[in-house]
Amino acid sequence: MVLEVSQIHTYYGSSHVLQGVSLSVAEGEVVCLLGRNGAGKTTTLRTIMGLAPPRSGSVKARGREIGGLPPHAIARLGIGFVPEDRRVYPDLTVRENLLVVHRRGDGAGRAWTVDRVYELFPVLARLDSHKGGYLSGGEQQMLTIGRTLMTNPRILLLDEPAEGLSPLVVQALAEQIMRLKREGMTILLSEQNLRFATHLSDRAYVIEKGTIRYEGTVAEFEQNEAVRHRYLMV
Amino acid sequence: MELSVLLNQFLSGLTRAGVLFMLASGLTLIFGVARVINFAHGSLYMVAVYLSYSFLRLFGPGGMGFWLSLVAVALSLALIGGAIEAGLIRRIYGREHLQQLLLTFALIYIIGDAVKFVWGITPKSVSRPPFLEASIPVPGGSFPVYNLFVIGLAALVGVGLWLMLARTKLGWLIRAVAADIEITEALGVNVPRLLTLVFMVGTLLVGVGGAAAAPLTVGALGMDVEIVILCFIVVIIGGAGSLLGAAVAALLVGLLEAFGILALPQFAVVFIYALMAVVMIVRPWGLFGTPG
After folding, report:
1. Does B169 touch chain A (CB under 8 A)?
2. How many helices (H) and strands (E) does chain A have?
3. Does the beta-carbon distance from A75 to B188 stay under 8 Å?
4. Which residues of chain B are within 8 Å of residue A74 when distances are taken between CB atoms?
5. In chain B, where does DSSP find H-type helix?
6. CATH code of residue A84
7. Which of B172, B183, B191 sits opposite A83 (nearest CB)?
8. Count: domains in chain A
9. How far apart are CA B145 and CA B225, in angstroms?
10. Cα–Cα distance between A51 and A48 in angstroms, integer?
11. Domain spanning B11-282 has what CATH number?
């Protein structure tokens, strides 16, 4: 398993946000974490990343326990985090946004460079010397993904990448993530946009009130109207 | 009024601006990146001036002694700044401003007493290095070459800092941390180490500024509080976190002080406070700062 989360409990102050979440992602797999607003999707990813450390439970990356490590150490073990609200560096140019966090990975797979990111997101190449803060929402989303790829991660954690983007941009983004998948990237994706997520994923988890309520292949999930209805209200 | 007097005041103002800029750029860098309001910044300046006295005695008064002392003071201050960050300030990141204020305010007293303990209460002065002792003729008088050296050094420091922030990966990292600490750390950057480094760069600038200012001033107790107020005025006028703002505001404050003395010898400082008041009313975030 590239990532194995078992029975994590995470609190924000006294509020018990994650109540025993377990999930796993295998090499080359795209897995989505579905749930309504406030269900615990973002907290799950933040817990894996060390930004909201779990009070109990275990997070393992390729067999190694990473729970309790500082975020930068977790990132250096190959976990690439793409935050939900984009958060590009507004005063840095597109190229600087990419180069500032560039890091050689562990040598597995083809290394990411600025040119390779521009190949995946051609629109960024044209914006090379523009400041991140002046990009559109979709461009910023591509830049945030590209920025994380520059750290040469073994797994990408994508937090609601389609949120707030127009349907056309979402479609383009889906194609680009598909391409990443074909190139062998392992991805854990949190989403509310079911069509976007199921189109990309191999397996799905459904989270509700901090607990995993369902897990299965995307094909199974698409047959299961009851789960979709109860937890995702569609 | 004679032109020569105006020219002389202009050059004096520039010199003062140069020193203020070197100090305020460190203060604004530390605030912009680490979000820490360091009231002890002026105390570090005082330490730099006293250290210049000691290092010049150690290395001798010649030109070589001057350069060695400048480097030694700068490195010492970087180490002191790094120790203060790693030992104390690191514990209060993200806490309310009052705690930062109390901690750095306490440092003013601690450093003040430490200076008194090490160097005593007699004021200490140093002389200009021999190769910069001359004066150059200016219309109607002469002007010390050393002051021109300080002006040039400040310009060099400003350009160097700008190049570092704009062109180097370290500069991008510093700006990335200033914009978003959490995400930068989640992308694999060892932010705690970077913050220590930023503190060291900020206090290194105090070291350069203090060593450069030493021959122009007298090391005396109380100089810490006097200078820190001016540094904060510069940072507030220029906009907290803005290097360009620190440069422009240092020029404004330095020149206003020099020409204010001509207009109202007893109350020159009033002009500076008036300028700050106007800026705070019109642009509370400073000339080159960003609102919010």
Report:
1. yes
2. 10, 10
3. yes
4. 186
5. 3-34, 41-59, 63-87, 97-119, 145-167, 169-179, 181-186, 191-213, 223-238, 243-263, 268-282
6. 3.40.50.300
7. B183
8. 1
9. 28
10. 8
11. 1.10.3470
Token readout for B163 is 């190049």
Give yes or no for B96 touching A (CB within 8 A).
Answer: no
pTM for the model: 0.91
Residue A75 to chain B, least CA–CA distance (Å) = 5
B37 touches chain A (CB under 8 A): no
Q: What is the pLDDT of residue A75?
A: 96
The more confident residue out of B137 and B206 is B206
**What is the span of the domain harbouring residue A84?**
3-232
Cβ A99–B172 below 8 Å, yes or no?
yes
The angle subtended at Cα B169 by Cα B164 and Cα B174, nearest 5°, is 70
The residue written with tokens 């490195």 in the block is B75
Residues of chain A with Cβ-Cβ distance to B189 below 8 Å are 72, 101
Q: Can you spell out the DSSP letters for A28-55?
A: T-EEEEE--TTSSHHHHHHHHHTSS--S
Helix spans in A100-164 (H): 114-120, 122-126, 137-149
ipTM of model over 0.90: yes
| B188 close to A (CB below 8 A) | yes
